[in-house]
Amino acid sequence: MFRTKSVEQSIRDTDEPDSKLRKDLTARDLTIFGVAVVIGAGIFTLTARTAGSVAGPAVSLAFVFAAIACGLTALCYAEFASTVPVAGSAYTFAYATFGEVIAWIIGWDLILEFALAVSVVAKGWSQYLGEVLGSRPPILELGSIHFDWGAVLIIAVVGTLLATGTKLSSRVSAIAVAIKLAVIALVLVVGATYFKASNLTPYIPPAQPSEKAEGVRQSLFAFLTGSGGTSYGWYGLLAAASLVFFAFIGFDVVATTAEETRNPQRDVPRGILGSLAIVTVLYVAVSLILTGMVPYTELAGGNATLATAFAIHGDMWVKNIISIGALAGLSTVVMVMYLGQTRVLFAMSRDGLLPRGLAHTGAKGTPVRLTVIVGVVCALLAGFVDFGTLEEMVNIGTLVAFVLVSIGVIILRRTRPDLKRGFRVPLVPLIPILAALSCLWLMLNLSIETWLRFVIWMAIGTVIYFAYSRRHSVLGKAAAPSDPDLMSHSRT
C-alpha cells in the first residue's frame, strides 16, 4: 500500500504514445490559468460581505494575511511541480513521497474537490446569466424537478473547448480574463471618485459578539474549545483571513498542467507565483476602495455585494457591469477547474488505479474520453442538484491537498536530495511546516457537518481502493512478476 512511484518513472510514463499530452503551454498561459481560476465572482461579493459582517475596513489586511498563508503553500507547489512535471498535481506528488494508498486518498479527495467546484460554479454562472439577460435564472421546471439549463450550457461549452485542445482553452481564458480585469479596473476608477479616508476609521473596529452556530453547523474549533465567535476586533480579523483564504483557492490547478508545459522547471513556478501576486494586488485594491466608498456598517447584513456600495451612491448602472464581469470570471473558473479534474483522473488512470483506457489521448493530445465523462457527470450534478452547504466540501478537499504537498516537500528533500529542482522552497523545513499549520488552522474553522461528509467520502474511496485500485495498480503489477497481466504493462 505504501509503495512509492519514483520521479523518474513518473516522467518516463509521460512519453507513452497512447497517453501522451501535448506540450503547448508557456508561463504566460499558466499565469492566465491561475488568474482565471482565482478571480471569480468572489471578488464582487466576498469582499463586501466580509467587510460588513466580520472585519470592517481591516478586510484588506485580512486579504494580506490570507495571501501570506496561501503563498507559503504556493512555494511548496512550485518546487514539486518543477521537480515532478507530471499531470496530477498533489496526487502525483503524494505517489512520489507518501506511497500509493495516500496518493489514492488525495486523488479521491481531488476528484470530490474539482467535481463539486465545477458544478457549484456553473450554477453561479447560470444565476449571473439570468441577471445579464434581465430575466429569471435559466431554470426549466419539469413538475417537481428543476433543470438548470444555464449551468449545463457552460459545462458543455467548456468541455468542448478542453477536448479541442489546451492551448485553445488558454486563448479563450485570456479573453475572459481580459474582460473581467477591465471590469475590475472600471470599478476601481469609478469607486475611487467616492473614496473617503474617514470611512477607514476605525480600521479595526471594536470586537462584538456574533451569533454562534449550533450542532453540526458550528466549526470544529468552536466545538473543541466551546468558544463563541466574535465579529470585528483582532479575532474578527483572523476569522476574516480564514474566510477570504478561500478566495485564493484554485492556484494549485496550475500544477496539474505541468506535463503540458514546454519548460515546466521554469514556467510552472512562474505561473503559480505570478498569478498569486496579481490576484493579491487586485483583492487588496478592491477591498480598500470598497471600504473607502461607504462606512462598513452599511455593508452589514450578509447580503452586501460590491454593487451595494455603488447603489448607495446611486450608480445602479455599475451593477450590470459587475454582473458581466462576474459572468466572465465564473466562465474561466469552470474551465480551469474542469481542466484540473480531467488531469487528475488522467494521472490516476495511467497508473492503473482507475481503468487505464480512460488515459487514452486523441489526435489533439487531450484525454477526450475523460473530458466527456467529467462533463456528463458535472452537468447532471449542476443541472439537477441543489448543493447548499455542500460547497464547503471544496474547501476541505483543497486544504487536505495543501497539507500533504507541504509535508511532501520535506520528505522528498530528505529521500531524494539528488533531484533537479527548477525551484527550491527557501528555509526548509520552516516554510513547509508553517504552510501545513496554516492550512490545518483553516480546516479547524470548517463546520463539523463538512468534516463528517468528508470522512464518509474518504471511507467510500478506501473501499474502492481495496476492491479495485490496489489489484490493478501498474506499479503493483510491475513489482509482482508472477502476475499474469504483467506482460501487458511491461513497458511501465
Sheet-strand content, in percent, reads: under 5%
Kindly report the spatial arrangement of strands forming the biggest sheet. 1-2
- The total beta strand count reads 4
- Class derived from helix and strand content: mainly alpha
Order of helices and strands: HHHHHHEEHHEHEHHHHHHHHHH
- The percentage helix is 55-70%
Radius of gyration: 22 Å
Determine the N-to-C terminus distance. 18 Å
Net shape: globular
**Oligomerization state of this entry?**
single chain
What are the segments in which pLDDT stays under 50 over at least 5 consecutive residues?
A: 482-492
Tell me the number of helical segments per DSSP (H or I, 4 or more residues long).
19
Query: Biggest sheet, in brief?
Result: 2 strands, antiparallel
Mean pLDDT: 85
Topology:
Elements: H1 7-13, H2 27-38, H3 42-55, H4 59-83, H5 90-97, H6 100-133, E1 139-142, E2 145-148, H7 149-164, H8 166-192, E3 208-209, H9 220-225, E4 230-231, H10 233-245, H11 253-256, H12 264-293, H13 306-312, H14 317-350, H15 368-384, H16 392-415, H17 430-444, H18 448-472, H19 474-478
Antiparallel strand pairs: 1-2, 3-4
Helix pairs in contact: 2-8, 2-12, 2-14, 3-10, 3-12, 3-13, 4-10, 4-12, 4-16, 4-17, 5-6, 5-16, 6-7, 6-14, 6-15, 6-16, 6-18, 7-14, 7-15, 8-12, 8-14, 14-15, 16-17, 16-18
Describe what this molecule looks like in 3D.
The protein is mainly α. It is built from 19 helices and 4 strands. Helix 3 (42-55) packs across helix 13 (306-312), helix 4 runs parallel beside helix 10 and helix 4 packs antiparallel against helix 12 (264-293). It starts with 6 loop residues before the first helix and ends in a 14-residue tail after the last helix.
